[in-house]
Each structure stands twice: as structure tokens, then as C-alpha cells.
Amino acid sequence: MKEFDIVIIGAGPGGYVAASRAGNLGLKCAIIDKRAELGGTCLNVGCIPSKALLDSSEHYEYAKKSLQDHGVLVGDVKLDLKALLERKDKVVREVTSGIDYLMKKNKVEKFTGTGKLVSPHEVEITAQDGKKEIIQGKNIIIATGSVPIEIPGLPVDGQAIVTSDHAINLPQVPEHLVVIGAGVIGLELGSVWRRLGARVTVVELLPRLFGTADKQIADLALRALKQQGMEFLFEHKVLKAEKKGSKVNVTVQQPDGKETVLMGDVVLVAVGRRPFTDGLGAKEIGIEFTERGRIKVDRHNYRTNIPHIYAIGDVIDGPMLAHKAEDEGLAVAEIIAGQKGHVNYEAIPWVVYTWPEVAWVGRGEEELTAAGIAYKVGKSYFKANGRAKAMHETEGMVKILADKKTDRLLGVFILGPRASDMIAEVVLAFEFGASAEDIGRSVHAHPTLSEVIRDAAQAVGGWAVNQ
Fold it and tell me: Is 108 helix (H, G, I), strand (E, B) or coil?
């Protein structure tokens, strides 16, 4: 039986980062995943392929609608969906092969198959051909991630009723795509297919977008998406979906209790994800779970109730974000190695890769008000920014909330071009406990989009020089 310092079950962002860091620290490490291509859901069917599709669809729409504003005339713009999907697959292959390289570089042994805990120190690996072997770990990290939630009355068949796993590979642009759920996944994939020519209707049980974001920013994002042509039905409950020939009838309940039927070509079920612990054997060996079905851990060291078994990422409490899992993987590898790894959960950014993009870190006005925290507000708009004007991308704003007495940053929200990249500056500021004035007095290159952040920071103190 092979023995390792660490055995990691799951090779998504949490698992492979933990493995890479463990190997880097000199620990003998094994990683197990059911896919031959490492990277988990994120790299294979989630974050990476969806971003490839988002970029391609943005280029297509930009060529159709905006290139002429730059004096570039391209004639009749046509879509080659087959080539677009092939490019997406190529991106995925390149990224997953990079993870293979990292494992080899850090001397991590890779096992392809399903991992199951059969004792507190043993993991049984079942290959696709049914062959089994058992390996032993002094420490075990559970990083099995999550899978899409399926809801009663919406039988997923992978063709007419699909999850995000299928929506990245639709063989043709649907005439009408009905998206169930106005979360990040639904909005991003809905944006892709709308740009490529589909009519998109989003059905959401809640009354607004982005429940954890500042409402003003969420409302501005909603307005932008509506202007682009996406339709929204808030406070509508989906009751069932039935195939009728080549169409799907979706029965929804309106806020007044009345029922209505939407007819679509494809229905995307994007109501969230659940921890994937099916067949893991965790409960059988005595690992404790929370009431919500997540593995219970000590958030300071990621230990379960069995001290040498750890859990990270989507299987434990907290937002299901790839970068959260990555940081937890980094931290737990360092903890096992005797270092003091940690994750600052107050400085984890959220990003929605629609266009304009939405990114934020910290708390919004509604949350601060509910907590009784006095705050100051500073705002700045991309329409006044020189680089945004040059790019022809002036929609959006930056909003900064800071403590009324100390000026310490409490929340920063960005709606605009490349918000996903711009948020990194703010996350660093949160890590160092910075004030709004700290950002306002930091030199930002001119002309850049990031100057909008500086302008908003100066506006918190009432001395914005560009407003």
C-alpha cells in the first residue's frame, strides 16, 4: 500500500493548489480525481470554459455593434458556433495541461478515479474500469467541490433542460433560452447566448439581483442587462417544465399566485450548487456534517472532528468561489506543514463576468445599516474617465463605503469594464486595513480605468479633484 503525507480527494482549485503547495513544502502528496484532466468543475466545465465563451461572445457582439464607432468597417459579421466552441475547448485543454505540469513539478502523484474514505487513514480509488486500489495518508484533505442543484419538476436531460455543464456546449443558438435562477452562473451563460442571438428570459424567486451586493450597484447592473435585451421575472416560482415536441413549456407562479407558461427551446437550471460528497464515505467513518449538508470544520485550521482529516472549498461553509477554495487549499497545506496558513474571509472578492462586469468586496449600504455601522460614501463614474472614453466603455461606477469615524474601508463595489481585474487593488487595501484616504493618495497611472477607484476614494473625504 502506498503511503503519503497528504492524500487529497478532488483536484479542483482547492485540491490542486493544496497539492502544489504541499509538494513545494516537501511533503509527499497524492491527488485523486475522477477526471483525467485535473482542475475540477472550474477548469473543465465551469469558470474557464464560461469565460472563454463570454470573451468570444463579447467580440462577436462588439464586431456587430461597436467596431464602426472606432472607424473599423467589417461588413457582414457571421457566427461560426463550431469554431467558437472549439476555441473554448482549446483554452480548457491548455489550462488543465498546466495543472498537470504543476503536479509533476511538485512531485505530486496523480490518481484517476473516484476516491472513497474506507478508514480514517485509507482512501479507496475506483478507476473507470472498476479496478480498485487503496492508498494511505497521514493526513487527508477533502476537496470534492460541488455540483449543480436539480429541482423537482425540471428533469435535466442535457439537451432541452440543461445545467451549466451542458450550457457551455449547446450545438446551436436557441431561439428562446429560459434561465431558472438569476445568480452568477445564470447571468453569465444567459449573457453568452443572448449575444449570440438568443432571446433570454431569467426567472428568479427572489426580488432582486445579487443579494449580498450593495443594492444600488445591483440595480444598475440589472438596468444594464435589461438594456441589452435580457428579460427578468422576479419573485416568480418555477413549478415544472415539460417537453412539447421541440419546445419546453415552463410553468411559473407569479407573485399574485397566478400561473403562466413560458415556452422556450432550452431551459437552463441555474439555481445554485450543492456540496458533492456522494459516495465519499465521510459519514460512514464518522465525519460530522452541518444541518445544511456541508462538512463541519474548525475554520481556523480546516480540521474535521477527525483531526488529521481536513475539508476545504465548496464542501464547507462559505461562498462557493474558486478563489476561496484556492486560498483554503494554500492555508491547509501550510498548516499541515507546521506553518500558520490562514484566510481572511473579510477580503474575499465577488465577481460577475457579465458586461459591464460587477465586482465587490466587503459590505453594502443595506448590510452596514442593518448592523448599525455609521459610514461615509464616495462615488465616481466611468463616463468621466478618459481611458473609459477612449475604450468606448463608459457605463458604470465605483462606490466606496468607509467607516464614518476611522475612514477604514468597509465595502467597495465596481460596475464597469474590467471590474474583475480592478477589484484586486481593493482586496489588497482590505488586507492591509487601509482607509479610503490611503487609496485616494496612492498614485494611479493616467489614463487608466483604475483612476475611477481613486476618484471614488477621494470623494469619500469630500475632496475628489476630478468631480
Answer: strand
The domain ranges of the chain are 3-147+274-343, 161-271, 347-460
Q: Pairing mode, if any, of strands 132-142 and 3-9?
A: parallel
| Catalytic option among 70, 300, 392, 446 | 446
Q: Was domain 161-271 assigned CATH 3.50.50.60?
A: yes
Helices (H) and strands (E) in the chain, counts: 13, 22
On whether the CB atoms of residues 139 and 308 are closer than 8 A, the answer is yes
Q: Where are the beta strands (DSSP E) in 174-322?
A: 176-180, 199-204, 231-234, 237-244, 247-253, 259-264, 266-269, 273-275, 309-311
Nearest-angstrom CA–CA distance, 348 and 332: 17
166 belongs to the catalytic site: no
Q: Which CATH class is domain 347-460?
A: alpha beta
3-state secondary structure of 259: strand
Domains 3-147+274-343 and 347-460 share a fold: no
* pLDDT tens for the 467 residues of the chain, in order: 899 999 999 999 999 999 999 999 999 999 999 999 999 999 999 999 999 999 999 999 999 999 999 999 999 999 999 999 999 999 999 999 999 999 999 999 999 999 999 999 999 999 999 999 999 999 999 999 999 998 888 999 999 999 999 999 999 999 999 999 999 999 999 999 999 999 999 999 999 999 889 999 999 999 999 999 999 999 999 999 999 999 999 999 999 999 999 999 999 999 999 999 999 999 999 999 999 999 999 999 999 999 999 999 999 999 999 999 999 999 999 999 999 999 999 999 999 999 999 999 999 999 999 999 999 999 999 999 999 999 999 999 999 999 999 999 999 999 999 999 999 999 999 999 999 999 999 999 999 999 999 999 999 999 999 98
DSSP string over 317-340: SS---HHHHHHHHHHHHHHHTTS-
Kindly indicate whether the domain formed by 3-147+274-343 is annotated with CATH number 3.20.20.70. Answer: no
- For the entire predicted model, the pTM comes to 0.96
